[in-house]
Amino acid sequence: MDFTQQSHALIVVYALYVVATASPGPSNMAIMGIAMRQGRLPALAFTAGVMTGSITWALLAATGISTLLAAFANAIFAIKIGGGLYLLFLGWKSARSALHPAPLDRNPAPGPVDYGRLYRRGLMLHLTNPKSILSWIAIMSLGLQADAPGHTILAIILGCALLGITIFGGYALLFSTDLMVRLYQRSRRWIEAMLALFFGVAGIRLLMTRL
Questions:
Q1: Cα–Cα distance for residue pair 25/87, rounded to 1 Å
Q2: What is the spatial distance between Cα 204 and Cα 207, in angstroms, rounded to a whole number?
């Protein structure tokens, strides 16, 4: 593979990752909700967990595509069930918030924000989404041709990691602005209801999807 072919393959990979990451999905919807409810730093902590999960799937996909599918078919099925149930749980929490909204306080007095818990929530959300590993398998299939140089894997993972941080971090920063917070305060019930609907539909679809 010459430099031009390699560059073209990487551009295709990066474009696919941007489309998959920027389009509405459980991770960026959750980041948006946390940013509006709790603020910038909590949303960024959640984002860090999401990105850790994404890179974890990337490293697993890079270890061997066909071998991975064969060896972890049952594990991916279990992850699908867990991910679907977790999305339904998020939907239930959003629905409860829509029906019984508590007073919004983005700077609670008692105790610091548990950033570790937010990080683990983001990590869990991404690790329990089998679509993530399947997306990474598709990305690696496109980017790793038989004659691709050894550093291509590093270029794919680092490039996509930078794009992911930019996109997910951008959601965290944008939706934690005063304008978005005021919008959330005015339309809180509707926003939480939409999140509940999104997570509920995503969870049911994931549970019913044949992987």
A1: 11
A2: 5
Cα separation, 12 vs 72, whole angstroms: 27
Q: What is the spatial distance between Cα 137 and Cα 160, in angstroms, rounded to a whole number?
A: 13
Average pLDDT, the chain: 79
d(CA 24, CA 6): 29
DSSP-based helix, strand, coil % in the chain, nearest 5: 80, 0, 20
Q: At what angle do helices 40-62 and 26-38 cross, to 10 degrees?
A: 160
CA 28 vs CA 50, 66, 145, 154, 199: distances in Å:
9, 29, 30, 25, 11
Digit-coded pLDDT (tens) for 131-174: 777 778 777 777 766 566 667 788 888 999 999 999 999 999 99
Parse the chain into domains and list their residue ranges. 3-102+128-208
Contact 195, 33 (CB under 8 A): yes
Q: Which residue has the tokens 């005063």?
A: 178
Q: How many residues does the chain have?
A: 211
**pTM value > 0.70:** yes
